[in-house]
Amino acid sequence: MPELLRPLPAEDRLVLLPKNPGMFFIFWQFSRGREDSFQAASFAPEIELRLSYAEDKTAASAHKAPWRAGRAYLPVPERGGNCEAALYAMRNGAWEKLLESNQAAAPAAAVSAGDSAYGSLEFHKKVLS
Amino acid sequence: MSSRGSLMFLLHAHLPYVNHPEDSAFLEENWFFEAVVETYVPIISVLERLAAEGIRPGVAVSISPTLGAMLENEALENKLCLYVSARLELLEKELERAQHDPALLKTVKFYQKLYEDAAVLIHKYSGDLITPLKALQHAGQIEIITTSATHALLPLLTRPEAVRAQLAAAAEDYEDRFNRKPSGFWLPECAYEPRLNSYLKLSGFKYTFTESHAVGGAPNGVYSPYRASNGLGLFARDAASSREVWSSKFGYPGDPAYREFYRDLGYDGDYEYIRPYLGSDGIRRPLGLKYHRITGQGADLASKEYYDPEAALLRVEAHAADFLARRMKQTDDFYASRGTRPLIVSCYDAELFGHWWFEGPAFLEAVIRKIRAERLPLQFVTPTEYLNSCQEPQEIVPAISSWGENGYFDPWVNETNDFIYPAVYAATDKMIETANRFRNQDISSLNVRALNQAARETLLAQSSDWAFLLYIGSHSDYARGRLEAHAAGAIKLLGEVIEKRVDEPALAALEQKNCVFPRLDFRVFASVSKF
Fold first, then answer.
1. How many domains is chain B built from?
2. Are B59 and B206 contained in the same domain?
3. Residue B298 resides in a domain
4. B 405-424 near A (Cβ less than 8 A)
5. Helix, strand or coil for residue B165?
6. Which residue of B has its CA nearest to A107?
7. A6 contacts in chain B (CB < 8 Å)
8. What DSSP designation does B7 have?
9. What is the ipTM of this complex?
10. How confident is the model over A17-62, as pLDDT tens digits?
11. Domains of chain A by start residue, with CATH
12. What is the DSSP string of A36-73?
């Protein structure tokens, strides 16, 4: 998977983006201090990404990921709609909330979506073939 | 005969901003030169020809601010003239090479005329192709709309400040270029989400377009305009009329008589013969001289036959007639079932017409002429005309959608390109934070220049083009390099302002290279409560 060559500023950030009716994309960045805490094993290497419904703040799902991964794809919870995420890390056996994301709305699945959508893509793809 | 329905054609013209004054022949600048010769000049010629004959085209054209900036860039205009001159020089040689091959000679002469026509039009407007489009709009022949400043996919910008900056920069750019406020807004990739309603309205836009499945449950489907709860007008794309034109498999562009896109003199010609027309690296690449026709589905490139422009034009006429017959049936069916006259909204990337589908501009002209010549009960309307004359549209809540593959945001968010978003957000967040910090401060002109350029770099980093190029695996290194350079450039400049050590020569070089949005004020990224 390609990576950017230049280092990014060290800041805390958790961003949730819509991808399709079934999937969110989420990425996170840590400030230097937080990163040092993971490096020094103050936090466990596995983080937890918790999705909740934005309207009533009820928990929807939780997913584990290595803190170094920096990004993940999360299934859209059953009710869909507006969701938000929080990133937790474990320290001394207890989960600590480190970051909160923006709200993101999952698209509702439309039967005709794939049929009606078009793209110049087919032309572009032929160039490559 | 009175109209039984209305047709709305929207051509969305966009190219990513590519300007490399440091290089006399930069590969990716060819995207612009090819599009000018094959798409923009032919379309402008069609529109001017129709208008001169008293046939009002009545189409809507979306011109992205980045394309507008390139069309007005003097350095690019000079390079464009060199590009056209070089092709004409090569075509002189080609006439000699083809003199004993009548079929090839006919096609070479055709290309010579294409490039001569381009040279004439470019010369007529002193290289600035915005001028004829502005004149056509001023004369009421067409309606020009805009899109987000750098073609950012707005649902993927979570910060309201970032969306506002994309919309405000686009609106200001349009006003500077066309001497009026824009009414319409083309959502890049037709990517819609409900929060955009208020952002668009607050930015002064009156209407936008959505993908077909965004209005799936609406009472009239795609056949009438709607409005959002805040009054924003919404037009939904008709998928059927698009598919006929778009699909190279099922649509008109795949006809055996039409020009074959993938066979090019740049690959066919003797290397030493074409070497002077390749880039400085000498790598074979398309030269835009494509002498063959599609010939047949599945025919391999080697077995393609020569292109016959006259035979292709006959097929254009047939396809225009077929297109209109299908629209007539659509309108008749709708009228029979609902008793009201439908509106059919056909949206296309402008570059399909001419660049990808070589005969596209001729098709557009034939469709418009046929409605007049055959007195068909259809009429072309522009979006503003339609909204001004129709009944109050019904209110709906469109669904999140795009016109991309699978109908949502997959082409711009996937394993091939998701690594770009941390950089995009790092630049965007830093830009917003710094704009808020300095918005009311009295700062030096050098710092203002640096902040304004940082804002330009941030907007350019947000372009959807980088993600798309990475996804299709075309010019991937260039796309990644551009994204990195813009994001890092913005972050560097913002750091320099904060630390009071702006590198003026480096700033000046960046201002010259990325000279979009000349009036941009960095405060466009500052937080505003109503957003």
1. 2
2. yes
3. no
4. 405-411, 413-416, 418-423
5. helix
6. B400
7. 423, 484, 487-488
8. E
9. 0.93
10. 999 999 999 999 999 999 999 999 999 999 999 999 999 999 999 9
11. 2-128 (2.60.40.10)
12. HHHHTTSS-SEEEEEEEETTT--EEEEEEEEGGG-EEE
